[in-house]
Amino acid sequence: MLNQILEAALRAPSGGNSQPWAFIVVRDPAVTHQLAIWYKDFWDNVYSKRPDRKDSPVSRSAGHLVQHFAEAPVIVIPCIVGSKGSDRDTMTTGASIYPAVQNLMLAAVGLGVGSVITTFLQNHEDKVKALLGVPDDYQTACAVPLGYPSGEETFVGSKRRPLDEVVHWDRW
Questions:
Q1: CATH architecture of 2-13+21-166
Q2: Are 5 and 100 in contact (CB under 8 A)?
Q3: What pLDDT does 53 receive?
């Protein structure tokens, strides 16, 4: 099943079809535990203190993930060529990795596997890269915990603005 999910990621478009990605599939509980510590550190010291995040559905969901991050049976860390701080345009870099992440997540849900994209670990990028052996010329793009829904949480999708607020026909 993991191979099917990862194969879907590889089918994504990338700039010039360069496929500048690599995926680390973390299954080792000791490694997952360390990632969870860094994940919680960002939550405790930054995210949870933001006034705009107090008691919102997104914040409650993120808080749930903080408490259960280490329980994910698999965490996929998508990586892309291009070190942080390089002169590479981040929008262009993201355009070559995030379609692969979306494909991965869509394939997972199609197989009944839950997933979420999160960037909390980027706040410990150097430590994460050292722990996972990521080469210097790559950067991590996000983390995607994968697992079967526990039954405690239900996913009904995020609220979306209606089409007439975001789609403009022929002109803005």
A1: 3-Layer(aba) Sandwich (3.40)
A2: no
A3: 64
